[in-house]
Amino acid sequence: MEALDVIVIGGGIVGLASAAHLRRDGLRFAVLERAGEVGGTWRDHDYPGCGADTEASTYVPLLEPLYSKKRFATRAELFEYCKLFARKHVGLKNIRLNHSVVGASFETKDHLWHIATNRGVLRARFVIWANFSGADVTKAKRPVFEGQEQFQGTIVHASELPNDPGYFRNKRVAIVGCGATSVQLVPSIADAASRITLISRTTPYIKKTRMTPGPKSLLGYRLQGAVLRCKNEIISIFDSHPHLEALYRWPYRFREYVLKRDGMPAAAIPPLTQPVQCTRRGYDYLGFRNSLKRPDVDFVSIAGSSGIERYTPDSLIVNGKTVQADIVVLATGYHMAEIAFDISVDGETFSLDPHNIRGLYGVIDGLPNSLLAIFGSPLWIIPPRLAEFNTKTFLKLVRHMRRNGLTCARINSAKAAKMTAMVQKLNRKHIVLQPDCPSYRYLLSNTGQESAGQLPSKTAANLPFLPFPTIVMELITRLTFSPRDFDFSSLGQASSGSPTAQKQVGDKVLQDA
User: Fold this and answer.
1) Residue 56 belongs to what H/E stretch?
2) Is 362 helix (H, G, I), strand (E, B) or coil?
3) What pLDDT is recorded for position 463?
4) Residue 367: what are its φ and ψ, rounded to 5°?
5) Residue 494, pLDDT score
6) pLDDT confidence of residue 282
7) How is residue 51 annotated by DSSP?
8) What is the average per-residue pLDDT within 60-67?
9) Which of 17, 174, 405, 472 has the fewest CB atoms lying closer than 10 Å?
10) Are the C-beta atoms of 466 and 457 separated by less than 8 Å?
């Protein structure tokens, strides 16, 4: 079988964003998607209230606007957008549905990636990893508490919920976790459930947000996106530094929890010492804060306590108190930086141990001819936009190789190590590493770095983090990208990145695969 130029693993919005730019560059590629439809997160999640907590005009790829009816797009809008984007910008013939990847290996003998799927083996010169979603239902976290087997109600992860508030009608509901899912779910089922108890380890900052109509014109869409991105960039500067963050935190707290408190329970207000950056800020556009004022909605904080102790046949025991429940919803997130198959290079398994991974420009040290689509992100990211930028940068490398007849590119290990050391040095005083920042502990528990004394960004899914706004990070990448940071080789030649070696290769391009 003839080798492709590129294989993209994952047909979610990140994989589609990358694939669209491959098509624009004229490459032969295939997107491998395990399910029968594209969409990823927005295909698999459909709980009541499900939608983006990032404004529509800043979230989706730049190639195609999303004219959402509201400022924040619903799950249905985003799912339809993914299908439209796939048809218009990727091409359905380039998407291979129901293709589950079971293994990936790079062979030096032919400088090709061999991707094993449930439908056979595909070969390609390059691979793009777009399967590190933070909300992959195959990696749902399902904490188990003592006595779970005797609980007579229903235990369900939020990703498995139907889009039907009636599912909760006249039920006592305990929701474990208070992230974006709970902020959307609670107000959407409050009128149906007989009682809701929200159990939170880290009390989040929740901003009351108006659900204003979305722009109707391309100009308005672009202007709104530019304004919101500028605002987010400014906030990211404050978020990176403890002293600057305090200047942002106190006006934020005063506005949201003094002027707008309106009877919110004390347990739902973050501690005075908790930096804003240290919980992902929730956008309340469905009425979450108002729901917390209802007599049939309870907010229970388990920070610094024994937490959830055990199940009984009809309840949870939390901090020694009984929480009656017919349904327990686990809004507990996902295991990040994990994949379900082995990756090898010349027969040797590549370890995705987040303690040791290094890289530059999205190419991971030890994985030739590949791109991690959401590489190099700030702590809170907009994955589709980042995937677009990283793919365009990666294509510079691909074009260089095609021009010079090169078939293998490895990141220079010494330069990757130097970059990793620089990132850790820059981040020694980052706010996320402060002792009163629960996000550090939360992110480490999601990325397998519980014992690591460094930023959680040094993982396969989030590497490296620079303490700068996104626009600065992208500018640095544009200015510093150079083929000299790679070690190249062609078929039958030893690895070398020198101009002399490149000249000896000749003019044959990727088609020699």
Assistant:
1) helix 56-59
2) coil
3) 35
4) -120, 90
5) 47
6) 83
7) B
8) 90
9) 472
10) no
How many angstroms separate the Cα of 411 from the Cα of each of 183, 219, 403?
42, 40, 19
Q: What angle do CA 479, 483, 488 make, to 5 degrees?
A: 165
**What amino acid is encoded at 15 in this protein?**
G
For residue 174, give both structure tokens. Answer: 């305990």
Answer yes or no: are the C-beta atoms of 371 and 362 closer than 8 Å: yes
Longest dimension (CA), the chain: 77
Q: What are the pLDDT digits (tens) for 343-383?
A: 999 999 998 765 566 777 888 889 999 998 887 655 456 88
Residues 68-99 as b/e (b if ≥16 CB within 10 A, e otherwise) read: bebbbbbbebbbebbbebbeebbeeebbeeeb
| Length of the chain counted residue by residue | 513
CA separation for the pair 345, 63 (Å, rounded): 34
pLDDT at 394 > cutoff 60:
yes
**479 SS3 class:** helix
Distance of CA 178 to the CA centre of its chain: 18
How sure is the predictor about 412, in pLDDT bands with cuts at 50, 70 and 90? confident
**0.85 exceeded by pTM:** yes
Tell me which amino acid residue 54 is: T
Structure tokens at 246: 């305090």
Q: What are the pLDDT digits (tens) for 222-252?
A: 888 888 888 877 777 777 677 778 888 888 8
Phi, psi at 7, each rounded to 5°: -115, 130
Rg (alpha carbons) of the chain, rounded to whole number:
24
Contacts 24+ apart (CB under 8 A), 415-418: 415/360, 415/485, 416/358, 416/359, 416/360, 416/365, 417/358, 417/365
Confidence bin at 317 (pLDDT 50/70/90): very high
**Spatial separation of the C-alpha atoms in residues 348 and 358, rounded to whole Å:** 18
Q: Cα–Cα distance between 289 and 205 in angstroms, integer?
A: 11
Tokens 């976290």 identify what position? 141
* 507 three-state secondary structure: coil
Read off φ and ψ for residue 287, nearest 5 degrees: 105, 30
Residue 493 burial (CB count, 10 A): 14
Query: Of the ranges 74-78, 294-298, 383-387, which one carries the lowest mean pLDDT score?
Result: 383-387
| 214 touches 240 (CB < 8 A) | no
pLDDT tens digits for 149-207?
Answer: 999 999 999 999 999 999 999 999 999 999 889 999 999 999 999 999 999 988 888 88
What are 309's two structure tokens? 């102790």
**C-alpha span between 487 and 475 (Å, rounded):** 24
Closest CA to 357 of 446, 485, 449, 480: 449
Cβ count within 10 A of residue 231: 12
User: Hey, which residues does 154 pair with through a beta bridge?
Assistant: 327
Helix and strand counts by DSSP (H, E) for the chain = 13, 23
